[in-house]
Amino acid sequence: MKLFFASDLHGSVSATQQVLEAYRQSGADHLVILGDVLNHGPRNPVPESYNPPEVAALLNDFQSEIIAVRGNCDSEVDQMLLHFPMMADYAWVLLPSGKRLFLTHGHLYNAAKRPKLKKGDVIVHGHTHIPVAQWDGEQVIFNPGSITFPRDGYSASFGHFENDTLSVRTFAGDELCSIKL
């Protein structure tokens, strides 16, 4: 199973197009969107090519391949434009190896505030806009960074899962971090 992770699109058409092109090229089975899909939020500037209805239309073409969770900037009004569910605060993905991925945006659950997890589980979240792939205690913390508003000097990035390895990559192809599960 191959998974492609994107977080914090914030309504940017150009970022969404870049994500979808990288997703197509990756050969991944599913596009996992970790929230903050359409709205830029009151603390962020209006992103380049901000057009939430167009972002929704682009993503809706992939509706059967998307697994999504709600971010702190997402609302029920956003859900009205999207043809895939994205209002859950979290979702689980069970990997063929039996390991579990806990998908969330990061504003409710994160490395510092975890739900009850088992040893070896992976918390996958966005929200901080900073890429991470590391063990933290008995769990792995994985954050694909941000497409639209990368922070701390990082480039726009996405996550990938293949062959029991989680990695964060830039759109230029550079690997920022990775971890073998």
Describe this structure in words.
Its EC number is 3.1.4.-. Belongs to the metallophosphoesterase superfamily. YfcE family. It is globular, with a radius of gyration of 15 Å. The protein is an alpha/beta fold and 181 residues long. Helix 2 links the parallel strand 2 and strand 3. The strands form two sheets. The chain has a six-stranded mixed beta sheet with strand order 3-2-1-9-10-11, with helices on one face. It has a single domain, classed as Metallo-dependent phosphatases (Purple Acid Phosphatase, chain A, domain 2, 4-Layer Sandwich), CATH 3.60.21. The chain contains three helices and eleven strands, in the order βαβαβαββββββββ.
Mean pLDDT: 96
CATH homologous superfamily label: Metallo-dependent phosphatases
Number of helices: 3
- Poorly predicted runs of 5 or more residues: none
Radius of gyration, taken over Cα atoms and rounded to an integer in Å: 15 Å
Helix content class: 10-25%
CATH architecture: 4-Layer Sandwich
- Net shape: globular
CATH topology: Purple Acid Phosphatase, chain A, domain 2
Q: Order of strands across the biggest sheet? A: 3-2-1-9-10-11
Give the strand tally: 11
Structural class: alpha/beta
Outline the biggest β-sheet. 6 strands, mixed
Order of helices and strands: EHEHEHEEEEEEEE
Beta-strand proportion: 25-35%
Total domain modules:
1
Could you name the CATH class?
Alpha Beta
Note the gap between the termini. Answer: 14 Å
Organism: Vibrio qingdaonensis
Domain Calcineurin-like phosphoesterase: 1-162
Enzyme class: hydrolase
Cofactor: a divalent metal cation
